[in-house]
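User: Good morning. I'm curious how heme C would be positioned relative to this chain. Could you predict the structure with it bound?
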Amino acid sequence: MRIFAISIAAALSALVSGPAWCDPAAAEALARKSGCLKCHGISKDKEGPSLQKTAAKYKGKADAIQKLTTHLTTSPKVKIEGKEEDHEQLKTKNPAEIRDVIDWILSQ
Ligand code: HEC
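Assistant: Good morning! Here's the predicted structure, ligand included:
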């Protein structure tokens, strides 16, 4: 458990301080592959808020990356059509790729 906690902490700090912005096309492809765009339009709300709405919500917030990293790596409960479900995670464990998708979302 302790080692688990330490490795999560290491992964999170790598995410927070990791390289910013690599490849928007790869980020979008990963989001597509992970099924994110089924519930989130770029500019259109679907089951979830549009990515532009999320970008606007977190604009200028110092904790944006940390909040979204938690959202996309810990399957928080969200209400989908009135039913509680685990939120989808990205289909990668690579912190750089996760960070890339978050940067891509925030740039919408
Ligand atoms: C089955 C539908 C569904 C899928 C698939 C899905 N989401 Fe969501 N997502 C939601 C809903 C619903 C919310 C709103 C949660 C809330 O407001 O409580 C949400 C919220 C979010 C938010 C906003 C978090 C915040 O703090 O404002 C982001 C960013 C997000 N999702 C990204 C993603 C990404 C990236 C993926 C792919 C890994 C994904 N979603 C897959 C339904 C989905």
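The two ends are 37 Å apart (CA to CA). The CA atoms of residues 59 and 108 lie 10 Å apart.
Let me know if you'd like a different ligand tried.
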